[in-house]
Request: fold
Amino acid sequence: MDDRTTADDPAVDAEVLGERRHLVSLAFRMLGTIAEAEDAVQETYARWYRMSPQERDAIEVPAAWLTRVASRVCLDMLGSARARRELYVGPWLPEPVPTQAFTEPEVDPADRVTLDDSVSSALLLVLESMTPAERVVFVLHDVFAMPFAEVAETVGRTPAACRQLAVSARRKVEDSRTRRAPRAEHDAVVRAFAAAAQGGDVQELIRALDPDVVLTSDGGGRRGAARNQVVGADRVARFLLGSIGKWPGVELAAQETTDGLGFALWEEGRIVGVVTLDVHDGRVTALRLMVNPAKLSLWNGAEL
Reply:
């Protein structure tokens, strides 16, 4: 952003720049990585500052304008993101973020659970299965409570069409949620799974896993990870125990995540991996191992 070009009214300029955290939060839910979200927000601000002072003065609510433009930028980016991910080295996973990454300290604890879920890896994977329009409509309306009339203006569709997109998106989200255990059950199962893994008994570990469990690891070509998903309790158990043996300098520690209890991989005082899990009917049904350093910045002191 060119610091030489600023709004004539310092108060308006402060309001605009003060929206950055909100815009990154919005864009992250639409795009799935902090880097892409930052790119979308940078483009949004670039469009604001490319306008003349008179054009900016004509905008009555700058925050609303920024939200609409950021959403449109994300909609455009989603179209090309799928093509880029087809060239990705190994499986692509959305970026896990620390709990309360986008929430302020004064937010009610009950609301924090809902906000954490809206950036959970499990939900972001469901959003990846949606069309770009479904995803943007769901995030704007169901997460950020934008009225359908405004959503329609943002995505260039009628309010009725946006309602249909929201229904379709909501159905996919609810189907996913019914296959996940409540948080208390999730955490209890994950603790039992951790005990089995630490014990090193492959049969005990297999019993902690669903027969059709799927393990997905994302190294992005920058750190060793399985190039394909590992499927089935026996294969996943042996993969996990083998991996533990290959990481002698890495410490595995329980870690709260937006998906519930998970694990952090520590090496020389830094988090080099994050594991999130899904649980259903008392067993682990999915494991997501993120070791791509480009998707772990917020775990090691970076700020939004």
Summary: The CA atoms of residues 187 and 259 lie 10 Å apart. The longest strand covers residues 270-280.
